[in-house]
Each structure stands twice: as C-alpha cells, then as structure tokens.
Amino acid sequence: MNCEMCGKKEAEYKTIVEGTELTVCAKCSAYGKVIRKPQLAIKTKQKEGFKKQEKPEKIEKIVIDYGQKIRKARTKKEMTQEEFAKKLNIKESLLTKIENSVLKPSIPLARKLEKILKIRLVEEIEDNEKVEIKSRKTEAVTIGDLIDLE
Ligand SMILES: [Zn+2]
Known about the structure:
By secondary structure, the protein is α+β, with helices and mostly antiparallel strands. It has helices at residues 39-54, 66-76, 81-88, 92-99, 107-117, 128-141, 143-148, and strands at residues 13-17, 20-24, 33-36, 58-62, 122-126. It folds into two domains: 1-53, no CATH class; 59-126, 434 Repressor (Amino-terminal Domain) (Orthogonal Bundle), CATH 1.10.260. Helix content is 49%, strand content 16%. It has a three-stranded antiparallel beta sheet, with no helix packed on it. The chain has a two-stranded antiparallel sheet with strand order 4-5. The longest helix is centred in the first third of the chain and has 16 residues, at 39-54. The structure holds zinc ion.
C-alpha cells in the first residue's frame, strides 16, 4: 500500500487527516490523528522505554585520590592503620596498599569505608556511550526510521 499523502511505499499508519481516513507513511502520520500504528514500531519503543526507566546505565567508579582521602579521614579519627584494618576486618597490609593508592578497594569495601569515614569514594557515572549505542539500535528497527533512510 502506498502512502496516500506522499506516495511512499510503506504506508503503515491509519490516520484521520481533516476528517478523512488515510493510510500514510510514518512521516505523513505526523500531519493527522493516528488511529493505527504499525505493531513493530510500537512494541520496540515501549520495551526500550521501560528498560531505560527500570535500569539506568550507571558505572560505579572509585575516585582517583582514594588513598589520600582514606588516610586523611583515618588520621582525623585518630586511628592507626592496625586499628582501622581491624575495624574493617581486612589485613593491615591491604589497608596500607589502599592508602598508598597501590590497590583500589572493591566497591563494597569502598562503600564500607565511605560509611565509617564519612567520605565519598565511589562516583556514579552515567554510561553515555552505552546509552547512545542502545538508542541507535532502537532507531534502526522502527519502521519510521527505515523509511527515512531511503
Ligand atoms: Zn507519506
């Protein structure tokens, strides 16, 4: 079926344009009131929107100056490395490595450190690159965008 407005091949939208029912392509459907959309496009869009809301793309990263921050906060609390390691239930040698920025703490350990020392060690970064790729993929499967590529 050809679009009744512009003549393009993929007329998948049933619309009411100025009181007349027309079968049109995705682009022309913007000019009227859509009463039926192609199934594929609707499904994909809903699914994607739902996913994004439920699971935002975020990366947890340890801050660069974690060692300095931990040492400073620990000394402020007047705890030795030994005492502090005991409190954390980790080896003193491990704490030394962390404070010297030789070893990055794991996210759960960093969260624990944050709580005890009241400092910020974990940054939450939005993974923009992933989101971009994802939305690009979505566009490719909707009928409207396939038509635009012609
Ligand atoms: Zn059209």
